[in-house]
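User: Here's a chain of 206 residues. Predict its fold as tokens.
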Amino acid sequence: MAHEDDARQAVPNTPGMRTDGDGVTRRRPLRERHVEETVEVEVPVRTAYNQWTQFKAFPRFSAVVRGVEQVRPTVTAWTLGYGPLRHRFSVEIVEQDPDAYLAWRGLEQRPRHQGEVEFRPTDSGGTVITVRMFLEPRGAARILTLTPKAARLTARLVHGELMRFKRFIEALGQEGGAWRGTIRNGRVQHDRPEPPRSRVAQWPVG
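Assistant: Prediction complete.
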């Protein structure tokens, strides 16, 4: 088994970006992980992925997500809470491949975080969902966040959310909506380039 330092050298500048042979820059999977949790759901990859990307539906099954708002095509604002406590923060989707991969980064300063979720088909027709998160706290929060106890609590929370999603989507049996777009470097990729806008004023007629 390779040592962790060897892995760092083999995959430099992680977590980060990579450029494939086609010249497209894609996100490199997170190597440094504060949390990694996996669950298998008994629905096809397309169904699991489509439902996962319906972010506004997260409060329907989550124990901590209280609301999700779409701010821009790649930015959402999340409100988390326990009891009367609430915390709101923004997240940017930086990479998204339908039925395969989604990566995000938090837009807050403390603690900074980034994460990814992978979808892989199983031989039985189900889906393996893996969530990885990397926290980059600052100041005193660094000491609190990187302790083994804090890591275990975070992992337990993520695992619980995955199990709730599993029960939710398996009970539904089908997704409640879908967005099949691709995102690269925080930008939505359009299949067809937008036509140039005419500089001639378009007056109402009729």
